[in-house]
Amino acid sequence: MPESIPASLIIDTLKTTFREARGGASPEPLGWVLSVPDTHQRTVLAALDKEQAIRVLTCATEDEAATVAAGLYIGREPCVLMIQHAGLYASVNTLRGVAMDGRVPILYMIGLLSRERDRQPRESRHSMVRFCEPLLDTFGVPHARLEGPDDVHLIPEYYRRAQERRGPAAVLVGLETI
Amino acid sequence: MSMSPEEVLRLIAAERGNAICIPTMTTAPAWRAIAPDDLSVACVGFMGGASALGLGLALARPDRRVLIFDGDGSLLMQLGSLATIAGAQPRNLVHFLFKNGVYHTSGAQEIPGGLTVDFVVMAKGAGYRDAFALHELSELKSRLPRILTGDGPLLVELFTTLAAETPMTSPGGTPFHEQVQALRDKLRT
Hints:
The complex is a heterodimer of chains A (178) and B (189). Chain A has 178 residues and is an alpha/beta fold. Chain A is built from 8 helices and 6 strands; from the N terminus they run αβαβαβααβααβαβ. Chain A has a 6-stranded parallel sheet with strand order 2-1-3-4-6-5, sandwiched between helices. In chain A, helix 3 runs parallel beside helix 5. The longest helix of chain A has 15 residues. The radius of gyration of chain A is 15 Å and the shape is globular. By secondary structure, chain B is of the alpha/beta class. Chain B is 39% helix and 17% strand. Chain B contains 8 helices and 7 strands, in the order αβααβααβββαβαβα. A 5-stranded parallel sheet of chain B has the order 1-2-3-7-6, with helices on both faces.
């Protein structure tokens, strides 16, 4: 059964990920979280409010968030996107035009809001949950699911994968963070 | 009176120093000819993205000025970026808005609201440090030094004629991913 992940664990993992992306250096900010607030990951966003090491930029749309990520990448600043599945659907053209065609490594952290604890997302009663993984498959975006605290290693792993393939990668947050 | 976009771009090219520039849609072909192989990345293929791309660059490189050459139809596609930029308050960002009232590339259909849409009011309402409109090249010439050195975020609405070329009449240029990599390499230091 999937479990919720504590916000502090995700934030510590992001710090490690950004530090590694900078070759071990620890400037402030270490990196950026580009967010269109996601109910599913709201405890992470709340905890990030108190963080100095990671800067959060709240964007009006997911299109903006992905395009800001491209600017940060060009300027050599590490970042991740923190959005929900509906935002992925809303920003598919930017996923294609910026992350894929621009060969910009962007790690998407996508909250699966309304995902049922006892079902695989592809079997969800909710279309917004059901279509997320098939959409990523259609676009050839590698993805993995964070089903509990033991899976947070997938964050740096998929961050690196995005860098190596020079394109988008995604981790899906299975249950609401705590 | 309106300015030609090419005249505007030539004026900016002469004064910009080492600023990073982000042309989009109808400014892209002209900028390619005026400022080839420099610190630029064109937003073509994801219309509306110039402002957010510029914001990311401005946040990553606060030591450099970032100049966005946006279009009125383009900005309408991501109008919320005005608030996102204002929220981030990048002092090094200048948002030039080339206003011609139409979607020139697709056949010059009028944008919603045409020339009556007031982007100066919108930018100020969003929280830009300043915003104003210019109609004459002589006005731009006299104000440009201050525009390029003052604190942003600043929006300058430029009333322009149609460009001589669009991405449809003058396709080509360096593919986006190559521009991304080239600018990233140049910004290594």
